[in-house]
């Protein structure tokens, strides 16, 4: 959150330090939880679970990694401030459901990626998530409800989704075991 305004105010050198430090920090949290990095999009990470190998607890693995990213934000902020760089903020969106996963692209450039409405909805959750918050959909909640506490996020209208039939939750706590 706010990196484009930082890059406009402070110039390129800060961005070329802040983005790699941030992506390294967050990726180091993500990988031990079995996540697959789909891609880095500027200062964003797109990741998924349950492919290429099946993970019975994939939704919980994703929520645990996301919650840890939020809880470990002060570590990154301290490292950035120690270098005289601006702190950054992030929000996270998680959605569970079917997706097409595999090598996709053109003859000249292929990448291993996930596509579909589940992925698009997760991106919309992410865009709506306040700084240092994790938003999840109903199916993710259903798969994790014995391990997490949530608040219903009322009145959110996501593009192409009905507010009456679509629920979004903010993760507020998670059990360690």
Structure, explained:
With 177 residues, this protein is an alpha+beta fold. Helix content is 40%, strand content 24%. It has six helices and eight strands, in the order ααββααβββαβαββ. The strands form three sheets. A four-stranded mixed β-sheet has the order 3-6-8-7, with helices on both faces. α1 packs antiparallel against α2. The longest helix is centred in the first third of the chain and has 19 residues. 25% of the residues are buried. The mean pLDDT is 90.
Give the topology.
Layout: H1 3-10, H2 12-30, E1 36-41, E2 44-48, H3 58-71, H4 73-82, E3 92-94, E4 100-105, E5 110-115, H5 117-128, E6 134-137, H6 138-144, E7 148-152, E8 168-174
Parallel strand pairs: 3-6
Antiparallel strand pairs: 1-2, 4-5, 6-8, 7-8
Helix pairs in contact: 1-2
